[in-house]
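Let us work through a complete example step by step.
Step 1: write down the sequence.
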Amino acid sequence: MVEHTLANMRDHLLALQEIQSHLGMGRTDAAAKIAETRLGMSSLGLHDAAEVSKYMPQGMQDAGTAMHRAASRFAITAQEAGVTGDLKPVFAGLAEVTAQCVGCHAGYRIK
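Step 2: predict the structure and record it as tokens.
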């Protein structure tokens, strides 16, 4: 379970890098798709979140849920930016996603 959880978190980090790369190239729709499918609420099945979360303290579960929700909100914001051209909300939304990661990693360690 530890290896599975670490693999999920590594994929989350890779997804963030891919999102940033797409944003740098102006591909907001591609960034949105990655955010939703790999980090957002739609990704819970992909990562076996229901099974993995059983072994996490409640605070860690809450941080994970907050990150997944923030990623789904980000995906919508990134799609909207494809129409409006306004990237400020996109970067604010991405900061909200990564803030959840930072908070969780600051407070928890897998043993």
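Step 3: interpret the result. The two ends are 11 Å apart (CA to CA).
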